[in-house]
From TrEMBL:
The lineage of its organism: Bacteria, Pseudomonadati, Bacteroidota, Flavobacteriia, Flavobacteriales. One of its GO terms (molecular function) is hydrolase activity. The keyword Hydrolase applies. This is Serine hydrolase domain-containing protein. InterPro entries: Beta-lactam-related, Beta-lactam/transpept-like, Beta-lactamase-like_AB/R.
Length: 352
């Protein structure tokens, strides 16, 4: 779930480039070389620049599969889900249903009774930029209890109990990556719209963008990849539950490129909302944050990025609005190091 710092740092020197035929061949060559070095890891990559798309994939759906991965193969996009959720929050702001400066108190389900010490302190923007100060799930313990489905141990009741028992925001206003914050944002969306999170994301992102292979509760499809942990063991895709807004959407490179196209188009509802998510809401000596997005800037470039890791897959999405390009990389193994090396090689050989 951590961003590729090295890649983002070198991207700051990028000015302009085009995905001409020569460039796509060079990109394909880099990805092929990465696959040959990691033949057990399936790769699917999508590019977009100025509405021109390019896709390249290597590997099989799984180690025992004879089916090739392609741009329509289903992956867990993991925490990239968070930028979909933050986009939905921003859409609600554009629709004047909420303000980012609103406190969360009145938007939470009735089972939440905030301690008096933390009432009217946490803003919606605090949740979305990872600075709420709220406690988070202990994933180590959850994995011990259920290595295949760790988030199954989180229910609406256990979530409410965690929040209701919090009487101090120890590091409020400081960055601390938070899955619980995006789980709460999903519940806030449900209260705003009077619909379930999967209905909201379907009606506001999946259907308008015609994302045929972006799935929520039901994902038992033929084009699904097999997830593998770092040791190569098979991992189950996470089942849908209350934590879905933080990381449980499944998708493909084809659909994520369509999403990037909408993000880069200021005339779409998704694009208008994306402009709001790209605003600076947090900054310290190590990072800048929008709503769910990591931001890296210099005098010439602004790069927006979000990575994701499930128990068995790794992913990253990033884009440069000014230059009109974006990239999505999906791996069928949890392998953030490979993801970073691949991105760095693309930069050194092409983007530089």
């Amino acid at each position: 779930m951590k961003k590729s710092l090295q890649f983002l740092a070198v991207l700051l020197t990028v000015s302009t480039f085009t995905f001409g035929q020569d460039v796509t061949k060079r990109i394909d060559s880099i990805i092929k070389d990465s696959y040959q070095k990691n033949p057990d890891v399936g790769i699917s990559v999508g590019f977009i620049q100025n509405n021109k798309e390019h896709f390249i994939s290597f590997g099989k759906l799984g180690k025992e599969s004879k089916t090739d991965i392609n741009e329509n193969s289903l992956f867990e996009i993991a925490s990239i889900t968070k930028i979909l959720t933050s986009n939905l929050i921003a859409q609600a702001v554009v629709e004047n249903k909420i303000k980012l400066s609103d406190y969360i108190d009145n938007y939470l389900p009735k089972q939440y009774v905030l301690h008096q010490n933390i009432r009217n302190k946490i803003k919606i923007s605090d949740l979305a930029s990872h600075q709420s100060g709220l406690p988070d799930f202990d994933f180590g313990k959850l994995i011990e209890l259920n290595p295949q489905q760790p988030v199954s141990g989180v229910t609406e009741q256990t979530l409410a109990t965690m929040i209701n028992n919090c009487n101090e925001l120890i590091d409020y206003g400081k960055y601390r990556y938070s899955t619980i914050s995006y789980t709460l944002l999903g519940q806030i969306l449900e209260k705003i719209y009077g619909q379930s999170y999967d209905q909201i994301i379907t009606n506001k992102i999946i259907k308008p963008l015609r994302l045929k292979n972006t799935l929520t509760k039901e994902f038992n499809v033929k084009n699904r990849t097999v997830a593998h942990n770092p040791e190569g063991g098979i991992q189950e895709f996470f089942n849908w539950n209350v934590t879905a807004p933080a990381g449980l959407v499944k998708s493909t490179t084809f659909d994520m490129v369509a999403y990037l196209k909408a993000v880069l188009d200021k005339e779409t509802a998704v694009g208008k909302a994306a402009l709001l998510t790209e605003k600076l809401f947090y900054k310290d000596e190590k990072r800048e944050m929008g709503l769910g997005l990591s931001i890296v800037t210099d005098e010439k470039n602004i790069i927006y990025s979000k990575s994701g890791d499930s128990m068995g897959q790794s992913s990253i999405l990033c884009y440069n609005r000014a230059e009109g390009w974006g990239i999505i990389i999906l791996l069928n193994q949890r392998n953030s190091k490979m993801r970073q090396v691949l991105l760095n090689e693309i930069y050194e050989s092409i983007l530089k």
